Structure formats: structure tokens, C-alpha cells
Amino acid sequence: MSLVRKRSVSIRGHRTSYSLEQPFFDELVAIAAERQIPLAALIAEIDTSRPRDANLSSALRLFVLGEAKRKSAHAPEK
Q1: How far apart are CA 78 and CA 68, in angstroms?
Q2: Whole-number Cα distances in Å, 32 to 36, 37, 59, 75
Q3: What is the pLDDT of residues 34-74, one digit of tens each?
Q4: Within 10 Å of residue 51's Cβ, how many Cβ atoms?
Q5: Chain-centroid distance, C-alpha 44
Q6: For helices 22-35 and 56-74, angle between their N-to-C axes, nearest 10 degrees
Q7: Which positions fall inside the Ribbon-helix-helix domain (predicted)?
Q8: Under 8 Å between Cβ of 12 and 40
Q9: Where are the domains of the chain?
Q10: pLDDT tens column, 10-21
Q11: Cβ proximity of 20 and 7 under 8 Å
Q12: Is residue 64 exposed (0-12), middle (13-18) or buried (19+ Cβ within 10 Å)?
């Protein structure tokens, strides 16, 4: 069984797919919930801001990594 799962989404009326490992997908879902927006809206936002030569799956992973780093930098020290 592959650790990467392919999923589909509609972005601005265009159907596309992306492949993510479950932990990245779970974190995207959590970020969308935190922002109180649908997952598809978050993916569309990321898609709009990614460089045209970057694929959507990579852009999603980099977004999740960036959010994790941002949260870590703002977390209170123990």
C-alpha cells in the first residue's frame, strides 16, 4: 500500500488532482478548519500563490511545512 494518496479537487471550475501523504492531508484539513474555510478554498488559495513551474502537490507540502514553522516560531517556550 502506498503512503501517498491521490485526491481530486475543483479549483475555479477546473478539476485537478494532487497526491499527498496522509499526515500532510490531515494538516491541510486542520488548517482549513482553523481558518473556517472549505478545504477546496484553501487549496485554491495555495494554487493561486504557487509558482507556475511548481506542481500543486509540492506547493501543498511546502505550505504545510511553512505553517508548521510559523506556528513553531510563535509557540511559547517551555
Answers
A1: 17
A2: 6, 5, 15, 20
A3: 999 999 999 999 999 998 888 999 999 999 999 999 988 88
A4: 8
A5: 9
A6: 60
A7: 5-66
A8: no
A9: 4-11+18-74
A10: 988 899 999 999
A11: yes
A12: buried
Question: pTM value?
Answer: 0.88
Contact 43, 28 (CB under 8 A): yes
Residue 21: alpha-carbon gap to chain centroid:
11
Q: How far is CA 27 from the centre of its chain?
A: 7
For residues 1 and 39, what is the distance between their CA atoms, to the nearest angstrom?
A: 25
**Measuring CA to CA, how many Å separate 10 from each of 7, 39, 41, 48?**
11, 11, 9, 13
